[in-house]
């Protein structure tokens, strides 16, 4: 079994000692994506909608770098700093996952890196 590190400049660089994604056999494990703009490393905006949209765009770019896409995502884990944002998160999320609905968990957390409101990670087939 071989591990392959996946890296793209079209998504934010890791802000810690981890990879954007790791491919193992037919599986791609994508690290948590914040709503950071790749070029600046700054949050896309102060609101959940802009951060969620950017986080999902970043996730899409990492998937693409790993040779796959949103339609091959098996599982998604999302972390929200405010569970009152759950409906707004779903509104943005369903714009990306239109027909394919992966297994998913959404967890409320106290805080996230860089003061982010949302973080999203996934496992996909590549």
**Total DSSP E strands:** 6
CATH-scheme architecture: 2-Layer Sandwich
CATH class: Alpha Beta
Structural class: alpha+beta
| Physical arrangement of strands within the biggest beta sheet | 1-2-3-6-4-5
Distance between the termini: 15 Å
CATH superfamily: RutC-like
According to CATH, the fold-level topology is 60s Ribosomal Protein L30, Chain: A
Write down the Rg.
14 Å
Residue ranges: pLDDT <50 for 5 or more in a row?
A: none
Tally the helices.
2
**What integer is the average pLDDT?**
97
Amount of beta strand: 25-35%
Write the H/E string, N to C. Answer: EEEHEHEE
Number of domains: 1
Helix content: 10-25%
Q: Which shape, going by the Cα principal axes?
A: globular
In short:
The chain is α+β, with helices and mostly antiparallel strands and 126 residues long. It has helices at residues 48-65, 86-96, and strands spanning 3-6, 21-24, 27-34, 73-80, 103-108, 118-125.
Structural description of this entry:
The chain is of the alpha+beta class. The chain has a single domain, classed as 60s Ribosomal Protein L30, Chain: A (2-Layer Sandwich). It is built from two helices and six strands; from the N terminus they run βββαβαββ. A six-stranded mixed sheet has the order 1-2-3-6-4-5, with helices on one face. Helix 1 packs parallel to helix 2. It is globular, with a radius of gyration of 14 Å. The relative contact order is 0.24.
């Amino acid at each position: 079994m071989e591990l392959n590190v996946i890296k793209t400049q079209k998504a934010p660089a890791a802000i810690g000692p981890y990879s954007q994604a790791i491919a193992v056999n037919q599986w791609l494990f994508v690290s948590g994506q914040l709503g950071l703009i790749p070029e600046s490393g700054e949050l896309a905006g102060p609101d959940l909608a802009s951060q969620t949209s950017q986080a999902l765009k970043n996730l899409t770019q990492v998937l693409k770098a790993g040779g796959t896409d949103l339609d091959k995502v098996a599982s998604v884990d999302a972390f929200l700093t405010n569970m009152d944002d759950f409906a707004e998160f779903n509104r943005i999320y369903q714009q990306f996952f239109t027909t394919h609905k992966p297994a998913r968990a959404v967890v409320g957390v106290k805080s996230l890196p860089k003061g982010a409101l949302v973080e999203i990670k996934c496992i996909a087939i590549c």
